[in-house]
Specification:
- The complex is a heterodimer.
- By secondary structure, chain A is an all-alpha fold.
- Helices cover about 65% and strands about 0% of the residues of chain A.
- A two-stranded antiparallel ribbon of chain A has the order 1-2.
- Chain A is globular.
- By secondary structure, chain B is of the alpha+beta class.
- Chain B has 2 domains: about 100 residues, no CATH class; about 110 residues, no CATH class.
- The radius of gyration of chain B is 33 Å and the shape is extended.
- Classes of the chains: A mainly alpha, B alpha+beta.
- At the A-B interface, helix 1, helix 3, helix 4, helix 6 and helix 7 of A face helix 3, helix 4, helix 5, strand 3 and helix 6 of B.
């Protein structure tokens, strides 16, 4: 039981929370800018659906209750103002000023997108809400703005203040994301036959057009299985201190490859890379103090 | 010795912690202090009380919060094609989706066999003359699902997944009303998908095209102000 308490309450350097707050805020900034071209069509009442249908449709799809902000602010101009507000809030969040209220604004607007247009959501939308929810109830390292963090990056003084539960929950979420997706891929015929990468590169996601992936199919067949192993391994490698650097290289390499070879997937890759910040520890606790609560 | 005498005589309690022996002296010998010792040891509150800057209540709340959130995540790993996974999903999904903690991570598990998608509308007036419009409301602009990926997901989900029936009907209704405002002479319309699907790898290797494009037509639907549902 002690170990269980320690898992959540062990004190860590609050700068680790500041890093993930800044990374997450910038990620949200890109997300809200990315949503701008879609705002009239999928979020306003002049677009594809009106809010009353969105409420019914969201319930039919998920069983949940739609509490979207866009159910109340429906016109094109109101939706635009909300997105601008979200962009401003994400910038303030990155700076660390009013961190909790600005995070709540960003989280609620992101959640509102899913509740208003569930048919238009992508995989990274859910990752953002999950990480946002965890951070909303976690320390945010709000005393550290990016400038202070940069200036005092090399400061060795141990400043144990924040319990680590927020970062542990994000780490666990990364585990679940990778492992659940691998479990699902194992039941998919394309992944089982080693054809997934070739099809991916030929698909609407492929950046480089042409039939060249078919020529390289023998290689992609092996990469197909390698990726399944890599996805299983990444969270474990990130979790273990001694293999963390290797895990970061492999994980960032995988997601950069997805972003380069695929189109429209840069935000997904960025989301996963930002989630790795929960594992990184630039200021490791000296060995003799590890586990100490003092 | 009765219970009261027992508590009076007792001045210290020795117990074994998780990692070391600890001696706790109970200064006030009352049943409540015994309960405190058991609580302190059994639930590891001993560790919690070592944080000088945080109240005990806050620590308990943090542990409860973390336990609930992590349990939700761990339950999310159950595959949805199993009875257990379905049962968990049915019970938890309404709450998960409402508060933003959904655990459906199916990125790329289904390989995109879609090569291209072009969506457009054809509308007809009373004489049967054809007019072409883009599918992007509110201004019927041409939209490119390849460039703006959310449109790709949106259109395929609306027209291929029966669960999105409400959204599909609403979209058709919105088109109908907007067409009527744009040109009152229009009577009906169809929604067209030029949908390129990737051919089998073996066929491509033997010289076939990468994809075969077929036009899927949805409709015709009447152009009218308010549609009856």
């Amino acid at each position: 039981m002690n170990t269980f308490s320690l898992l959540w309450l062990k004190n860590i350097d609050p700068r680790r929370y500041a890093i993930i707050r800044i990374g997450f805020a910038l990620l949200l900034l890109f997300q809200f800018v990315h949503l701008f071209p879609y705002r009239d069509t999928i979020l306003s009442n002049a677009g594809m659906n009106n809010p009353s249908v969105a409420k019914i449709g969201f319930h039919e799809l998920t069983g949940g209750t739609s509490i979207s902000l866009f159910n109340y602010f429906q016109s094109s101009s109101e939706v635009t103002i909300i997105l601008i507000l979200a962009i401003i809030a994400s910038l303030i969040l990155a700076w660390g000023k009013w961190a909790r209220p600005t995070l709540f604004i960003c989280f609620f607007i992101q959640l509102s997108l899913i509740h208003r247009a569930p048919a238009s959501t992508t995989g990274w939308d859910s990752i953002l809400t999950n990480l946002g929810f965890i951070l909303l109830f976690s320390p945010l390292g709000k005393d550290w703005n990016p400038w202070d963090l940069f200036r005092q990056w090399n400061k060795k003084q141990i400043n144990l203040k924040a319990p680590q539960y927020g970062l542990v929950l994000i780490q666990l979420q990364v585990f679940i994301i990778y492992w659940q997706t691998v479990i699902q891929k194992l039941g998919d015929q394309y992944w089982a036959k080693g054809e997934s990468i070739t099809y991916f590169l030929l698909s609407h996601h492929g950046r480089f057009t042409g039939s060249w992936p078919v020529t390289w199919h023998e290689l992609f067949d092996k990469i197909n299985y390698l990726i399944l192993l890599v996805e299983l391994a990444i969270p474990i490698l990130l979790w273990i201190r001694n293999t963390r650097r290797l895990g970061l290289w492999i994980g960032i390499g995988l997601h950069l490859s997805i972003a380069i070879l695929g189109i429209n997937l840069a935000l997904f890759s960025l989301t996963m890379i930002v989630s790795y910040l929960a594992f990184t520890d630039p200021w490791p606790t000296p060995h003799k103090l590890r586990g100490s609560t003092e | 010795m009765d219970q009261k005498a027992f508590y009076k005589r007792r001045t210290s309690i020795l117990f074994i912690g998780q990692s070391n022996l600890q001696l706790f002296t109970i200064k006030k010998s009352r049943p409540s202090s015994t309960f405190f010792v058991l609580y302190y040891n059994g639930l590891s509150i001993r560790y919690l009380t070592n944080h000088p800057d945080m109240s005990l209540n806050r620590k308990v709340i943090i542990i409860l919060f973390s336990t609930i959130i992590s349990a939700n995540m761990l339950l999310g790993i159950a595959p949805l094609n199993t009875n257990f996974g379905k049962s968990i999903s049915k019970r938890l999904d309404p709450i998960r989706w409402t508060i933003g903690l959904s655990q459906k991570w199916d990125m790329f598990h289904s390989i995109p066999t879609h090569h291209s998608l072009r969506v457009y509308l054809t509308a007809y007036d009373a004489s049967g003359k054809e007019y072409r419009y883009g599918a992007g409301l509110p201004s019927f602009r041409e939209i490119s699902p390849k460039k703006l990926i959310r449109y790709h997901y949106t259109f395929l989900r609306l027209f291929n997944d029966p669960l999105n029936k409400s959204f599909k009907e609403s979209y058709i209704e919105s088109i109908s009303q907007t067409l009527l405002k744009t040109d009152p002479r229009l009577r009906q319309f169809t929604i067209n998908f030029d949908h390129g699907r990737i051919n089998a790898l073996e066929s491509i290797r033997k010289g076939a095209n990468i994809a075969t494009t077929r036009t899927e037509k949805f409709g015709p639907y009447k152009v009218q102000g308010e549609m009856k549902r």
